[in-house]
C-alpha cells in the first residue's frame, strides 16, 4: 500500500490555479489545501510546461519546400543586412 495520497486532475488544476492567482507563497497555499509543498510545486511546473509546449514534438512535420523557401529568404535578408551595413559605413565616413 502506498502512503501517498492521490488527487484528481481537477483538484490539481484547481490547486495550481489558486496558487498562481492568489499571489501568496506556494508554501502557504499548500498548507491551506493540506497538501505537500513538493506536490504543489510539481503540479505548477507541469502546468507551466504544458502551457508553453516545451519538450513536445510538433504536431506536423516540417514541410521541406517551405523550409527551403525560408532558408532562401533568410540568406536574402542577411545579404541585404550586410549591404546596409556597408552603405551606412560609407555614408558615415563621407559625413566626417
TrEMBL record:
Superkingdom as given in the UniProt entry: Bacteria
InterPro entries, per the entry: Homeodomain-like_sf, RD_transcriptional_regulator, Transposase_8
Pfam families named in the record: HTH_Tnp_1 (PF01527)
UniProt name for this protein: Transposase
